[in-house]
Amino acid sequence: MQAQDRPNIPLPATAMSPSVSVPVPAPLRPSSFRSRVSWVGRTLAPRSRRAATIAPAAFDDETTEDITAHTAGGAWAIERVLAERAVEPLFQPIVELHSLRPVGVEALARGPAGSAVQRPRALFAAAVAAGRLAELDTLCAERALEVARGAPVPPPLVFVNAEPAVVDQPLSARLLELMTDGPPFRMVLEYTERALSSRPAALLQLAAAIQAHGHGLALDDVGADPMSLAFLPLLEPEVVKLDLQLLRAPHAPRTVEVAAAVSAVAEQTGALIVAEGIETAEDLANARALGAHWGQGLLFGGPAPIERMAPGEAGAAAVLRPSRPGLHLPAGTPFEAAAARGKARTGTAEAFAAHLEHVLRRAGSGAVVLASCTDADTARSWLPSLHGLSELAAFVGLVAPVHPASVGPNVHFAPGPSTVDSATEECAVVVVAPRYTAALCGRGTRDAPAFAHTEDRALVASIARIILQQLPR
């Protein structure tokens, strides 16, 4: 990270900086790890946060008035759609950008032709109004796979969208059957970072299920929100889809930053990059310049019935990285994961504090910051810093045995297991940012502490997933 990129953040008070006075509400018992994160001051206004709801722009170009008109009579219509399974998906081709040969299709949901809910925006708005969004989302996925399987020449890859608001729903028996009963293609489940930020544990469970059955994952709209870049190393999707607005401003600093970050992740993980919204020859040139491998858009064809899709390259599915079952749900604790890689060392409370200051100093804008702790006193002493960081970071999460009322609204929280006074304490702090990745884990008592500090990206991502999967579903 360049010096000018580092936030000017007052560091936590520690045993190494006694000049900083920090009031505490009550005496805390001695701890190897409490020390040392007690306060991070901020004078920033709360950053804006994307709501974990349906984004109207995600569907069609219908107006708000259209949706309002349809929703009034859409409740009965959505009941009929679900009862009759009356979703007829269309498909849009995805092509390899140099040969322009098709490699797969993306399924796009449509309601019954001629009905008030034919267009996807009205269809999903009606489902939300009727409280049936989860059922509609599942039906859309089922119908996409059913229709693709029935094609004269099934495509090698079928991209299916997952609605972030309902990723905590279990896979239906029909969907599991379609995924596991020898499908003639690989499915790629496509979702946005909003799903992870709103229901991280649920999305990791879903990702694990998809990988266990040999299918792949895609992260959509990358570049639309800084959070998507921060989550890329944690998700490690097979496909990264660039937000279509990047093509419209290919030389803008933000576009160049996103393209560089995505290309770095692709080089490290083997992910494929897809550019969306390619409509002209200029868009195609821009997509290639941004490092995209594949693309989709009206230049190659709009949504159409599966029978009108050209046969895809037979080896396209094999181009995607093989599935990795177990990646998203690692077992054990953060310290155990670090120790298994030979990262643990003996130390002192002061050494842990120094490393903690180093890690937190780098937690700038757009970072994912995660913390876990088995000691309530330690967790309470960390809360002011986590609250301060939540005004700057993309996502802050905490798993600890403290009362929920003590945790600020911008910190994603789950109660965690607690140690008793005589037991061994364990804690961890993870920072995942576009330019910096680190994890610090500790285990022991004040007289016998051990800790691990690693900046190995793969190990840090695994430790982050251990914490994320404990957050609310």
How would you characterize the overall build of this protein?
It is a single chain. The chain folds into two domains: about 55-320, TIM Barrel, CATH 3.20.20.450; about 330-470, 2-Layer Sandwich (Endonuclease, Chain A), CATH 3.30.870. Helices cover about 35% and strands about 20% of the residues. The chain has helices at about 65-85, 120-130, 135-150, 175-180, 195-200, 200-210, 225-235, 245-250, 255-270, 280-290, 315-320, 335-340, 350-360, 375-390, 455-470, and strands spanning about 90-95, 100-110, 155-160, 185-190, 215-220, 240, 270-275, 295, 345, 370-375, 395-400, 410-415, 425-435, 435-445, 450-455. An eight-stranded mixed β-barrel has the order 1-2-3-4-5-6-7-8, surrounded by four helices. It has a seven-stranded mixed beta sheet with strand order 9-15-14-13-10-11-12, with helices on both faces. Helix 2 crosses helix 3 and helix 12 runs antiparallel to helix 15. It is globular and about 70 Å long. The protein starts with about 60 loop residues before the first helix and ends in a 5-residue tail after the last helix. Mean pLDDT is about 85; it is low at about 1-30 and about 35-70. It comes from Dactylosporangium darangshiense. This is EAL domain-containing protein.
